[in-house]
Amino acid sequence: MNDLERDLRAVLDEDARRVRTPATAPEGLRRSARRRQVLFGGLVGVAAAAIVVVVIAGASVLLPLQNDQQPIGEGPVTTGTMNGITITYPSSWKLIDPDTAGLNGSPTMGESPFPRIVLALAPTDPSETFGCPGLAAAGEAAPLLMTIQEEPLALDGPASTPWPVQLAPMNADTSEAGCYPDWQFLRAGWTASGRTFEARVGISPDATNEERDALSAAFASMTFESSDGDATQVVLAHGTAGGEDWQLIAARQTDGLSLSLDTRTFGTGSGGYDPTADELSLTSHVFGTGPEAERVVFGAVPEGVVRVEATTGGGPTVSADVLDIPNEIDADLNAFVLVVEPVGVVQVNGFDASGQIIATGSARDRATAPLPAAALEDGRHFGYVRSVDPDAGTIEFDLAYFLSGEEANDAYHAAGGTGPVPNDHFVVNDNPKLRTLHFSPDFRLRLLDWNHCCETFFDGDLSLFAQAIEQQGDVTDGDLIYRGQSQWWITIENGLVTEIEEQYSP
Amino acid sequence: MSQGTGIVRTIVEDRPDLDDLYVRHTPGAVRLAALITGDADLAQDIAHDAFLRSVGRFRHLRQPEAFEAYLRRAVVNACTSHFRRRKVEATYLRGQARMATVDEPDHGRRDELRVALSALPARQRAAVVLRYYADLSEHQAGEALGCSEAAVRSMVARAMETLRERIPRSEDT
Description:
A: 6-stranded antiparallel sheet
């Protein structure tokens, strides 16, 4: 191994050690992961190769609790109850306990029970029902199946629709095509008896019309019991930002209130709120990119706050009423959520009923987060601008030394020059190292007006400046000249470039 | 077992659950993403997204032990996709500055190396990280990058050549 490879390994190992890694899955991620564990189950497919036979005495877990001769479709039917859901279905079908069938992962997920599949229905045993029907031998896979998943109680959004509801077509991920070739998918979300559910139905092309009708009838037959205890999770609000649907969920955790922002593929959250603090703890996330990008900011507020108002640098002020968190989740705190400009610091003020500000807080987006250390210390530095990226707001800067007087003469002679240094200055630039530096929001570009040389400056345009630097030549804008091969003084404050000023050279 | 006789199939309990998978694989995924992107926050997002994508497909894997390789490929794909946007390139540089100086500033040769690494094309950087940090074989790195072993060899060679050219021996001016 040579020196470079050794250093490379050392640098990478060193940097890797500095990366903070999460010890446990964040709550929002767990929830998103469960949603993404595809259409009808959790990790059951993993275990498909390890299925063993277990005899359950009388199979009482999976057998219907009572027989019922009420007609549903054609043929004998059965009514069963599972996890507080009573459903009537063809007697030849299987009412499947999701926990026994492994659809909910492991019991260690018990601390965050939702979303959780609470009922499954299919014409076949679990092992033939779930996994990957498309890869099963002909005639062995279930022609259709339905799962009912319990979700956090929806106080807002489509899932708060009261039962009964209709099944509607659902777009499945195209990656499911291998396991569910040409299947049709339906879904519905609703709230009943203080509980929120989502049904997912899959129907293979092999399903008969009778089977389809029987499934529809079984779906419509469901009745729901209230949950045993108070709600531990509620959906407070929902919306769309940057083209992505989100919902804000409040949950009661062992250490107090937890708020999380969930999308189909993403989850972020925070907790440990102090109900007595007047400084708001904000969490934000930017959805989308480019002009479509939007930032969702959320947090908890003390009970006295009834309205919040958010401002971002240059963006409009956005306000919203506070969202009431049910007392069984948290008696002392409420919440807010706002969609604001994606860039810059967002300042949030919480107002009481009389219009007084009683709580404040701020959050930065990643792009404006402070840099713990800059590539160059604060102050004024001389050198060459080697490249400019207006989109990223950065320059590559080649630091040099602008010497004058004795220092310039000494350096000039050391470099092999003879006599006095020309123009009484000498530039030393032995190291080609480039430093990437970021512009501050109030960055100023001061260029010499060569038509009125040489103490008159004008405020330059960054894109023309970038063009001149890239071309290493002159770019003109009317009478104004942007010189790509000039020398520059840059001013750095708080690690950011606040000014670039052109150095006159004859 | 006979079906229809009251005997029911169930699942053995040797399957990894979500928490197991997360704890076992995500820290490595975060580190890998951080080294490729240079941004610890972005790395978390990428690793989580890759984890979500991978776990969603997990039940379709014929070989569950392949999850790590599957996740690694998802992370590398996500990182290189991000690098298609110039802003993220800038984020990398910013992040590298952060990572390089948070705990113990190092302005020597290794600092130069970090800067030079940051300037590599994304896939070359990913190849270097997979070979010299993750210690993957050329074959494994090729799987993660979705290319041949020869392509990995070529990318790493080009990257090392560039690094040799860009790392100056002299001290700061």
